Amino acid sequence: MKQIKVHSVKFETVRSCRTVAYSQFRYAVRLSLEGRPCIIVGGGRVALRKAVSLLDAGAAVTVIAPRLDDGFRTLGVAAPHLRFLERPYRAGDLKGAFLVIAATDRRDINHAVVEEALRLSCLVNAADDPSAGNFSVPGTYAAGAVRFSVSTGGNPRFTHLILGDLAKQYGPDFGAFSTYLDTMRDRVKELLPDPDSRRRFWRGILTDDLVEEIRQGRLEQIKERIANEIDHCRAQS
């Protein structure tokens, strides 16, 4: 689906009212949420940010809250896979959910949501206390298909600074080049069926100097070089 923008943000950092013990979250993953039922309990700005992120990932999102931030109204117009239950959370609301986010301004409600989600073996995150759930949400920065995730042990300001530095170093050309490589993968695989041959080919192309070349705006020259190498391999086959 198209990326949904409610307010201008380049990246998101995890905000918490206190430093939490993140050492339990040691295994980094990326989830496929296309069509997956996800529930957010809470209707404020934090819940809104989480809803935008989940919808961008293709999830089917249900928001449960007696009151909703005005941004949800705008979001609902553009997001057919978003629905609202405008009432307080009730035990049993999480049945069938794949992923749950507790994002209310009440610790007791968030705790109840986490407890139910864990009983149901859902993935669950509490916005006010990530260590209470079974996953955390790192800060992220994306340049097209290239994505960076940063976790600093519960220090959102430090995460924000690192993400800002990444944004300066890795601009849109990196995402464009990653997409280009994806289009070339099948062509090279067809040309070089042997995995070792393909590995040698890409090692010869993706050298240590490549990152700096992309930063210097030499993307088209790099593409031309790859095309020439493919033609050379084809001529030898």
Question: Explain this structure to me?
Answer:
This protein has 237 residues and is an alpha/beta fold. The protein folds into 2 domains: 11-140, NAD(P)-binding Rossmann-like Domain (Rossmann fold, 3-Layer(aba) Sandwich), CATH 3.40.50.720; 172-236. The chain contains 8 helices and 8 strands, in the order E-E-H-E-H-E-E-H-E-E-E-H-H-H-H-H. It has helices at 45-56, 70-78, 107-119, 156-169, 172-191, 195-205, 210-215, 219-236, and strands spanning 11-12, 37-41, 60-64, 82-85, 99-102, 123-126, 139-143, 146-150. It has a 5-stranded parallel β-sheet, sandwiched between helices. Strands 1-7-8 form a 3-stranded antiparallel β-sheet. Helix 5 (172-191) runs parallel beside helix 8. The longest helix is centred in the C-terminal third of the chain and has 20 residues, at 172-191.
Q: Strand order across the biggest sheet?
A: 4-3-2-5-6
Which residues sit in consecutive blocks of at least 5 with pLDDT less than 50? 1-20
**Termini gap:** 41 Å
Class inferred from helices and paired strands: alpha/beta
The largest sheet is: 5 strands, parallel
Mean pLDDT: 89
CATH class of the largest domain: Alpha Beta
Strand content: 5-15%
Helical segment tally? Answer: 8
Total domain modules: 2
- Along the chain, the helix and strand elements come as EEHEHEEHEEEHHHHH
Gyration radius, in Å = 22 Å
CATH topology of the largest domain: Rossmann fold
- Under CATH, the homologous superfamily of the largest domain reads NAD(P)-binding Rossmann-like Domain
CATH architecture of the largest domain: 3-Layer(aba) Sandwich
